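Colleagues,

For the teaching module next term, I've prepared a clean inverse folding example: a structure given as tokens, and then the sequence designed for it. I'd like students to try predicting residues themselves before seeing the answer, so please don't circulate the second half yet.
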């Protein structure tokens, strides 16, 4: 298997999917707090942490030109490759918690395998990360394009800048940023091709048209001060999913499970025990 997965605790399986550029170690404290109730599986997504890359779709200049008006055509094969890898590793029914990019992957997984995914926890997540003419709750396309350009010049500096955006405005911002920076490369640097692929998903994927197909119970957790996926995106997500509710964590930005762990754990346990 290509995936590195750390297992903590006993009980119903809960699979944790991290955000762009990070690794499963970001959930280590969360896993310890949930271990008495659940068997927590912290995943290093392909090309991140200790997981091998599964091989992304090559994007030539010709392919870029042919898909510039339909970017999801490029993001979709990458999502499929990741979900296929996850599905092979987890053949049993599971609960899934996805943060940011991990939340987009979790949504896609829930659509593809509705019988396998029992419940969804979507943290600082959105069906459409980038702005569109009909979607005002996303990051500007120009900002994502700048990230993509900077990634090619200095991917380590680009990741550090992305971390700063995640905690901006959060309570305990300085301490939170220091903790994230300490974890960032603690399992080595992520594969550059995997970073490109993840950024393509953030830029191109638009899952709004599939939300009605996600019939599993879902908990959407948002940070009140999130600058990357604003609470409005989480409210849209919760209202569009057939069985979902939203919880907004006051004083939190993009990583409420780190800045406000007690509230996060309380909400997750309550939801999964229903």
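(Answer key — instructors only)
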């Amino acid at each position: 298997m290509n995936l590195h997965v750390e297992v903590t605790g006993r009980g119903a399986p809960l699979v944790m999917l991290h955000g762009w550029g990070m690794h499963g170690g970001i959930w280590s404290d969360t896993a310890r707090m949930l271990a008495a109730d659940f068997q927590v599986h912290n995943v290093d997504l392909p090309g991140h942490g200790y997981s091998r890359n599964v091989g992304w779709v090559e994007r030539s200049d010709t392919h870029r030109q042919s898909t510039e008006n339909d970017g999801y055509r490029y993001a979709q094969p990458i999502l499929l490759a990741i979900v296929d890898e996850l599905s092979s590793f987890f053949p049993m029914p599971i609960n899934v918690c996805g943060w940011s990019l991990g939340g987009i992957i979790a949504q896609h997984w829930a659509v593809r395998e509705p019988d396998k995914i029992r419940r969804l926890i979507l943290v600082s997540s959105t069906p459409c990360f980038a702005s569109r003419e009909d979607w005002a709750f996303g990051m500007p396309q120009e900002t994502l394009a700048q990230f993509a350009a900077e990634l090619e010049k200095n991917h380590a500096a680009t990741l550090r800048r992305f971390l700063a955006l995640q905690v901006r405005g959060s309570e305990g911002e300085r301490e939170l940023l220091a903790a994230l920076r300490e974890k960032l490369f603690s399992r080595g640097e992520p594969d550059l091709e995997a970073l490109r692929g993840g950024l393509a998903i953030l830029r191109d994927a638009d899952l709004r048209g599939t939300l009605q197909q996600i019939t599993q119970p879902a908990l959407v957790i948002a940070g009140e001060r999130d600058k990357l996926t604003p609470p409005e995106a989480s409210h849209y997500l919760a209202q569009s999913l057939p069985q979902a509710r939203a919880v907004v964590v006051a004083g939190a930005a993009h990583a409420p499970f780190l800045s406000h762990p007690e509230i996060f754990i309380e909400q997750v346990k309550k939801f999964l025990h229903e």
